[in-house]
Amino acid sequence: MSQTKERVLTLNGGSSSIKFALFEVGDSYHRMLAGVIERIGLPETTLRVKGLNPADNCSRSVMAPDRTAAVGALMDWIEEHNWRDALTAVGHRVVHGGPTYSEPRRITAALVEELLRLSPFDPEHLPLEIELLETLRQRHPALPQVACFDTAFHRTMPRVASLLPIPRRYEAAGVRRYGFHGLSYEFLMEELVRVGDPAATQGRVILAHLGNGASLAAVRDGKSIDTSMGFTPTAGLVMSTRSGDLDPGLVAYLARTEKMSAMQFQAMVNHASGLLGVSGTSADMRDLLECETRDVRAAEAIALFCYQVKKWIGAYAAALGGLDTLVFAGGIGENAPTVRARICAGLDFLGIELDARHNAANAGVISATTARVAVRVIRTDEERMIARSVCRVLGMG
């Protein structure tokens, strides 16, 4: 098979959706298409595809009562387009690598067994991801698959940043701070190198991945030294439906007053909190911005989000001993000038000053020309990072 015909499928599985992209591997990573299977388990499950070739564009209903059926529908579509024979490998975003995995790994029976053992670390994601890769393995057992761990980027964090202040015996079982959004952060750092930002390799960088899930990372000389998410992706900032950091005493309080179980608490802080819980109306920042002038709850949700991001920037500037570059990424970070402006307001003492016109245009550099800190907007690409990792592991490209 010629190099230009090698193709990598990337999969990012969630509780009710599977995002995917298809890359052709050569001198560059040519994205042939991207898509999503949405509302898995519901009658209106939909497969949507957008490709460079208009003939590949698709939006159709599929029968997908579970992820097994959803993967089948996706592979059916790929085979209809005669791409299966050219499909070289599949890469999966696996949220949690636990204490064992700090690099992408080819998926084997032993790795699957270890991921099953790690499932209690992240019951919100790992069981679903294991089901996804196992389903694909059963359908195409000879097709190489690679797991790309979202925790890997933060393997360089110093011990003081990874310790949890609980009895030491739990550390031996792997209970510590890991951090997430690593695929996004790795891509952003590579982009900083590409555009020639010297702070990427010798400087102090804060990365803000602000989307449905949101976190920040402090990076010194290209290595992560701290990040806002912790043992699970629920920690840190307020997010779309996740609470972020909470007083642990709340668990006992709700157990006493509402008889709330651990599983109910888990569901609440992951799916009914954050922007949705505070606003009472929406988890989508776009909706909240649209109605904030007439809905005080929406305004408070936005204010809380911006305030918390501002605090983390200040904290990480302290941990880094200053700041050279601040990067905004993710759906909110890339597309919400109002939110970026509110986060950065008052941070001029750190050297952060925005150019209002460039910020409003979502330009690549939004800092004022006189500012000490470069503030950038970079469109992150986790799928491309997965494809690159697959090629490194399998020796492709």
Q: If you had to describe this structure to a student in words, what would you say it looks like?
A:
With 397 residues, the chain is α/β, with parallel strands linked by helices. It has 2 domains: 3-149, Nucleotidyltransferase, domain 5 (2-Layer Sandwich), CATH 3.30.420.40; 196-382, ATPase, nucleotide binding domain (Nucleotidyltransferase, domain 5, 2-Layer Sandwich). It is 38% helix and 20% strand. A hairpin with a 3-residue loop joins strand 9 and strand 10 (214-220). It is globular and about 55 Å long.
Number of strands: 13
CATH architecture of the largest domain: 2-Layer Sandwich
- The outline comes out as globular
Order of helices and strands: EEEEEHEEHHEHHHEEEHHHHHEHHHEH
Quickly give the structural class: alpha/beta
> What is the CA-atom radius of gyration, in angstroms?
21 Å
Low-confidence stretches: none
What is the makeup of the main sheet?
8 strands, mixed
The N- and C-terminal alpha carbons lie at a distance of 12 Å
CATH topology of the largest domain: Nucleotidyltransferase, domain 5
Query: Could you name the CATH homologous superfamily of the largest domain?
Result: ATPase, nucleotide binding domain
Task: Tell me, rounded to a whole number, the average pLDDT.
Answer: 94
Question: What is the CATH C-level name of the largest domain?
Answer: Alpha Beta
The neighbouring-strand order within the major sheet is 5-4-3-2-1-6-8-7
The percentage helix is: 25-40%
Number of helices: 15
Total separate domains: 2
Please report which band the strand proportion falls in: under 5%, 5-15%, 15-25%, 25-35%, 35-45% or over 45%.
15-25%
